[in-house]
Amino acid sequence: MQQTKQQLTIKEASVWASDFLKREINESNISYLVQYGKVRTVFY
Question: In which band, very low, low, confident or very high, does the pLDDT at 38 lie, cut at 50, 70 and 90?
Answer without folding.
Answer: confident
